[in-house]
Design a protein that fits this description.
Elements (H helix, E strand, L loop, with lengths): L6 E7 L3 H10 L6 E6 L6 H8 L5 E5 L5 H15 L4 E4 L11 H9 L5 E5 L4 H5 L3 H18 L12 E4 H4 L13 H11 L4 E5 L13 H26 L4 H30 L5 H27 L6 H4 L4
Parallel strand pairs: 1-2, 1-4, 2-3, 5-7
Antiparallel strand pairs: 4-6, 5-6
Helix pairs in contact: 6-9, 8-9, 10-11
Length: 322
């Protein structure tokens, strides 16, 4: 099936002049097009590639203003759709990803079991131990938030930029709404969930050399957390109240109401007891504790439903004619 699939690779470029040619040289013959996007790189990487590479597959695009990695990838996506690519792979131009893994990355899509596949550097404990500690702990925190905001509970390593997507999925995504900066990968997962796309992780090994990452986990952790909270609220409202209303919606509403009531009632009762110096009665304690217990049970039930509601039928199967 790979023989019949037109494969395009997108290389967003920003301060990667020293590594980009080595990356292009390693891209195999299975790739039909290599789209290099110069994101207003101060090193003029696009011009450097255009002058140095004779590979006919290479196309260089330029941004007049820096748009971030997401903006560069969106430009590449749109160009790849114009090339009628069946599968589009995003490959970092700094050499951290081995182009030899492209075949492995696209295998779930080629086999029709996924719409979107992404690398996972945490699958092998040995590979994870080689990751710088700041990146490791930052990714762990962001991965949990991404599970909540995207709905893909089985997905890990959300900031991994080694991704592949099928054109049937790419064509229905609202590319103009996806974050264009470093939050792109996480926001992409959120929009993929709303489109009910099947996403899978593919084990990979990252290569950490002399390249300098433009993403500083510590500096974006608060920003990412706020954006994840926004996406959590939007995803739940859209999935459980606008597009559908089910027993999970009831569990969420009753869980939140009971939990808030129990905490407020218990807090007020505790304050009144502390002020008066008299211990609260057993009945007062139960009126505050019981709603909390039941509310937590409702919320746990909702989370269980949300975990099982991960998309399972790929869009490419739903749109494929017999």
């Amino acid at each position: 099936m790979l023989v019949n699939s037109r494969l395009a690779v997108i290389l967003p470029c920003y301060r990667s002049k020293g590594q980009v040619l080595g990356v292009i040289d390693k891209i195999g013959p299975e790739v039909s097009n290599i789209v290099v996007v110069d994101d207003k790189c101060p090193e003029m990487t696009g011009d450097y590639v255009a002058k140095s590479v004779s590979d006919d597959r290479v196309i260089v695009l330029y941004h007049e203003e820096n748009q971030g990695v997401g903006g560069a990838l969106i430009t590449g996506y749109r160009h790849a759709l114009g090339l009628d690519a069946d599968i589009v792979v995003k490959l970092d131009s700094d050499g951290q990803m081995d182009p030899a893994l492209i075949r492995t990355l696209i295998a779930p899509i080629v086999n029709g079991v996924a719409d979107y596949s992404k690398g996972n550097r945490f699958f092998n404990p040995h590979d994870a131990s080689a990751m710088p500690r700041a990146r490791l702990f930052g990714n762990l925190a962001l991965s949990f938030l991404t599970k909540l905001s995207s709905g893909y509970w089985q997905v890990f390593d959300p900031t991994n930029g080694f991704t592949a997507i099928h054109k049937s999925c790419l064509e229905i995504l609202p590319l103009h709404k996806i974050n264009r900066r470093f939050f792109f990968e996480s926001d992409m997962l959120y929009h993929l969930y709303l489109a009910r796309s099947v996403v899978v992780d593919v084990p990979m090994t990252a290569q950490y050399g002399e390249e300098n990452s433009n993403l500083k986990i510590g500096s974006v952790l608060v920003e990412f957390s706020l954006k994840h909270c926004r996406n959590i609220i939007k995803r739940i409202l859209y999935s459980y109240f606008l597009r559908d209303f089910s027993i999970a919606s009831v569990n969420l509403v009753f869980g939140c109401v009971l939990l808030v009531f129990g905490l407020l009632y218990g807090g007020i009762g505790w304050y009144a007891s502390a002020e008066s110096g008299q211990a609260a009665t057993a009945g007062t304690v139960m009126v505050g504790a019981l709603p909390i217990i039941i509310g937590v049970q409702f919320l746990v039930s909702f989370l269980g439903y949300d975990y099982s509601a991960v998309p399972r039928i790929p869009i490419q199967q739903l749109t494929r004619l017999p």
